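Tokens for chain A. Residues wanted.
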């Protein structure tokens, strides 16, 4: 599977995406797919500063057919899949995001669901007590989801939380071995993922409708 870089001219978090129609269907999330065997090598993606002005893209956006049942469904870019169209190592910053060939570079600005929502509740499948709230008054986008997931994972943990995992400290040392500034910040939630640092998508949560679990898989 090949991917290509995403190089938009600008991105402004919280800006309202312009919605256009496209024949590609939305797919409702089902049961989690098998774990990915690994992530392929892909070229680096360059992103602009998050405070830059919002662009006006000419690409199309997902929209369900007129009259179709409005069952709540994830954008295909966010659905848990054995071949996720998004390649994202959460240890790295947002510039590392890459898209599979055939995905529009502006698709990260598409709505996260098949109908507009201003708030999305996500939890880590392995650590459900850590919840992530994604909000955007103009409508939550795919990029909003990825950004908030990364931000939540890079928060420090309390002494009580640190006792949950016996291996987090090991991965913390490996992650910060060459970065004294990161080491000084202590153990973070991302260290609890162990080797599973690649975003694999979202699936419906057992907490109830409208809630989602995020999954991660290891690299090859």
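Reply:
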């Amino acid at each position: 599977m090949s991917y290509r870089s995403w190089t938009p001219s600008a991105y402004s978090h919280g800006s309202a995406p312009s919605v256009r129609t496209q024949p590609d269907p939305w797919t409702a999330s089902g049961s989690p797919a098998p774990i990915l065997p690994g992530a392929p090598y892909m070229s680096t993606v360059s992103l602009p500063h998050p405070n830059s002005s919002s662009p006006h893209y000419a690409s199309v956006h997902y929209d369900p057919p007129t009259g179709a049942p409005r069952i709540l469904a994830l954008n295909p870019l966010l659905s848990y899949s054995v071949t996720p169209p998004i390649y994202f190592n959460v240890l790295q910053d947002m510039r590392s995001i890459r898209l599979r060939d055939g995905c529009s570079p502006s698709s990260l600005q598409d709505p996260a669901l098949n109908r507009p929502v201003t708030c999305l509740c996500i939890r880590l499948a392995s650590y459900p007590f850590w919840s992530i709230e994604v909000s955007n008054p103009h409508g939550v986008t795919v990029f909003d989801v990825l950004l908030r997931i990364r931000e939540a994972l890079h928060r420090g943990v309390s002494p009580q939380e640190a006792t949950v995992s016996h291996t987090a400290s090991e991965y913390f040392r490996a992650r910060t071995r060459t970065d004294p500034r990161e080491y000084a910040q202590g153990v973070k939630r991302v260290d609890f993922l162990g080797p599973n640092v690649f975003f694999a998508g979202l699936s419906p949560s057992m907490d109830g409708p409208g809630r989602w679990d995020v999954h991660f898989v290891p690299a090859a």
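Strands lie at 3-5, 86-87, 98-100, 119-124, 131-135, 198-204, 211-217. The longest helix spans residues 142-153.
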